[in-house]
């Protein structure tokens, strides 16, 4: 065998390729916690495993674009979503700093419509969150220069992108910071409330989302 190409035993491969995946209270969203392997050189982890995610989602995630944002402490980005189909599923992690990441169920007719869940993404536990198509996404930066990286299943299409005001009291996101410190873009503060978005017909439906997920599962 050539030097530099050691053959790994299957038990070692299994030990190195571990992630814990937990479904959140919003259907079709998941928290992913990787195993970390540290020594005096630093840390190694697998922050994305398509096969492990496929086991719980029901289909492979066809990634089309990768994004990175760097935010000042207190910055709020979202609530954002895209028309379904195809919308845009997201796999989000924070390689530097910390953010509180929210998934909001905006699918009209969903049993959890208007509800949300959150995951702390940081450079300590190095968790990720998976957010399926048709769900709303938002985060608040808890540290300076909080860096967030997203893997997404479709390229950005401004004509199909929408927003909901992240301060909508009907949704009631709990940011964990004094709102006087929050930094928001006019685009987000000018966005409609959840009720206004529903009345205007821009929200995805639970039925349309389930039908689209089924097409993806069938392709798998």
TrEMBL record:
<feature type="active site" description="Proton donor">
    <location>
        <position position="150"/>
    </location>
</feature>
<dbReference type="GO" id="GO:0005829">
    <property type="term" value="C:cytosol"/>
</dbReference>
<protein>
    <submittedName>
        <fullName>dTDP-4-dehydrorhamnose 3,5-epimerase</fullName>
    </submittedName>
</protein>
<dbReference type="Pfam" id="PF00908">
    <property type="entry name" value="dTDP_sugar_isom"/>
</dbReference>
<comment type="similarity">
    <text>Belongs to the dTDP-4-dehydrorhamnose 3,5-epimerase family.</text>
</comment>
<dbReference type="GO" id="GO:0019305">
    <property type="term" value="P:dTDP-rhamnose biosynthetic process"/>
</dbReference>
<feature type="active site" description="Proton acceptor">
    <location>
        <position position="80"/>
    </location>
</feature>
<dbReference type="InterPro" id="IPR011051">
    <property type="entry name" value="RmlC_Cupin_sf"/>
</dbReference>
<dbReference type="GO" id="GO:0008830">
    <property type="term" value="F:dTDP-4-dehydrorhamnose 3,5-epimerase activity"/>
</dbReference>
<dbReference type="GO" id="GO:0000271">
    <property type="term" value="P:polysaccharide biosynthetic process"/>
</dbReference>
<dbReference type="InterPro" id="IPR014710">
    <property type="entry name" value="RmlC-like_jellyroll"/>
</dbReference>
<dbReference type="InterPro" id="IPR000888">
    <property type="entry name" value="RmlC-like"/>
</dbReference>
<feature type="site" description="Participates in a stacking interaction with the thymidine ring of dTDP-4-oxo-6-deoxyglucose">
    <location>
        <position position="156"/>
    </location>
</feature>
């Amino acid at each position: 065998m050539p030097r530099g190409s050691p053959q790994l035993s299957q038990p070692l491969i299994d030990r190195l390729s571990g992630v814990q995946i937990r479904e959140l209270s919003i259907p079709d969203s998941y928290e992913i916690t990787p195993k970390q392997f540290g020594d005096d050189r630093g840390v190694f982890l697998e922050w994305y495993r398509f096969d492990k995610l496929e086991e719980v989602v029901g289909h492979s995630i066809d990634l089309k674009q990768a994004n990175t944002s760097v935010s000042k402490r207190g910055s709020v980005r979202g609530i954002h979503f895209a028309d379904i189909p195809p919308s845009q599923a997201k796999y989000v992690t924070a390689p530097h700093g910390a953010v509180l990441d929210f998934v909001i169920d905006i699918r009209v007719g969903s049993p959890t419509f208007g509800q949300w869940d959150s995951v702390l993404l940081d450079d300590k536990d190095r968790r990720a969150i998976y957010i399926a198509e048709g769900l709303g996404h938002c985060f608040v930066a808890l540290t300076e220069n909080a860096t967030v990286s997203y893997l997404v299943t479709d390229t950005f299409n401004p004509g199909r992108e929408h927003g909901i005001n992240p301060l909508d009291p009907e949704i009631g996101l709990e940011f964990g910071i004094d709102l006087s410190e929050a930094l928001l873009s006019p685009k987000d503060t000018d966005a409609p409330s959840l009720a206004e978005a529903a009345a205007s017909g821009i929200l995805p439906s639970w039925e349309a989302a389930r039908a689209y997920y089924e097409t993806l599962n069938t392709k798998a």
